[in-house]
């Protein structure tokens, strides 16, 4: 199997911008959780992976791989200059024994730190990157109308069986958004801090585009980022909590009592991000609830929001 993988890498080695031939002394590191990930590192070039190979066994993953590679590369072609280089080149492939995968060009950098040595400048740089990314990839404007809000409430009532009292509270939170225009377009889809690579003080790259999607509110990428940051921070300091408890603590950290250094950073950067998008930062919590309702997958979403809203309103 490894020979087949290397053969596929050789086919795109030059296309990825590397000088042929494929190195003979390439190191291979293996990571395996829900899938197999191989990191190919050429010591003569650097200590970051030149190529990353992600493998999934089920054959039905092939169309999914092809779709997200096609979408991410379509987005890459929308960008110019240095922005274009922050999205890795990718190629989908399939091995003879029905294992499907993606070859992805490695990007140098280190993930944003959410636990120790927290640097506000890194969060600021990503907010700026995201605003610029969305200037290329936002394809339309959506006005938040009463009809939009009622459609959201009708959907969550039918899908999640929300209690009437919870729907009333959510409607109260959504009401100040009526009449506001905001952009819709392509989303990265997984703006977890581990996927944001910082290199030489700038965003060197954004990786893991498996969740890429279009026709969503652009601000969802930012809210997924800040919520992922606080959940990872809570997880590192309170490992005994359930995921629901981590989400509630993360929400409280952001909006109920933002006194920690990290919470202050995220609130400042959220204000700056929303202002850059032409949005009122005083409504940042309202947008957060819309993000949770419309986009973010949460187990027991109804119970989570039912418990969250009274503590914040």
Structural write-up:
- There is one protein chain.
- The protein is globular and about 65 Å long.
- It folds into two domains: 2-105, 2-Layer Sandwich (Phosphorylase Kinase, domain 1), CATH 3.30.200.20; 111-312, Alpha-Beta Complex (Aminoglycoside 3'-phosphotransferase, Chain: A, domain 2).
- It has eleven helices and eleven strands.
- The chain has a five-stranded antiparallel beta sheet with strand order 1-2-3-5-4, with helices on both faces. A three-stranded antiparallel beta sheet has the order 6-9-10, with helices on one face. Strands 7-8-11 form a three-stranded antiparallel beta sheet.
- The protein has helices spanning 2-13, 61-78, 81-85, 120-137, 146-160, 164-174, 220-237, 243-256, 261-276, 284-294, 301-312, and strands spanning 27-32, 36-41, 51-56, 90-94, 100-105, 110-111, 138-143, 181-187, 196-199, 202-206, 213-217.
């Amino acid at each position: 199997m490894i020979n087949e993988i290397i053969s596929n890498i050789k086919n795109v080695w030059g296309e990825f911008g590397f000088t042929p031939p494929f190195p003979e002394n390439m190191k291979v590191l293996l990571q395996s959780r829900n899938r197999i990930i191989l990191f190919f590192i050429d010591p003569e070039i650097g200590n970051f992976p030149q190529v990353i190979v992600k493998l999934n066994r089920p054959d039905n993953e092939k169309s999914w791989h092809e779709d997200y590679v096609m979408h991410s590369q379509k987005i890459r072609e929308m960008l110019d200059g240095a922005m274009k280089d922050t999205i890795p080149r990718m190629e989908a492939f399939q091995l003879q024994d029905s294992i499907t995968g993606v070859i992805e060009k490695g990007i140098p950098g280190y993930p944003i730190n959410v636990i120790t040595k927290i640097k506000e400048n890194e969060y600021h740089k990503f907010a700026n990157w995201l605003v610029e990314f969305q200037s290329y990839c936002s394809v339309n404007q959506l006005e938040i109308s009463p009809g939009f809000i009622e459609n959201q409430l009708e959907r969550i009532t039918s899908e999640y069986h929300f209690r009437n009292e919870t729907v009333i509270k959510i409607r109260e939170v959504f009401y100040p958004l009526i009449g506001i225009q905001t952009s819709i377009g392509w989303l990265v889809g997984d703006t977890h801090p581990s996927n944001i690579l910082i290199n030489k003080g700038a965003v060197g790259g954004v990786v893991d585009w498996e969740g890429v999607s279009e026709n969503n509110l652009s601000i969802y990428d930012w809210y997924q980022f800040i919520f992922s940051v606080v959940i990872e921070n809570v997880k590192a300091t309170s490992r005994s909590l359930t995921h629901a408890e981590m989400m509630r603590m993360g929400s409280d950290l952001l909006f109920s009592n933002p006194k920690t250094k990290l919470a202050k950073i995220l609130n400042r950067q959220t204000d700056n991000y929303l202002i850059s998008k032409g949005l009122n930062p005083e409504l940042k919590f309202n947008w957060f609830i819309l993000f949770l309702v419309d986009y973010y997958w949460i187990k027991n979403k109804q119970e989570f929001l039912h418990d969250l809203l009274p503590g914040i309103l």
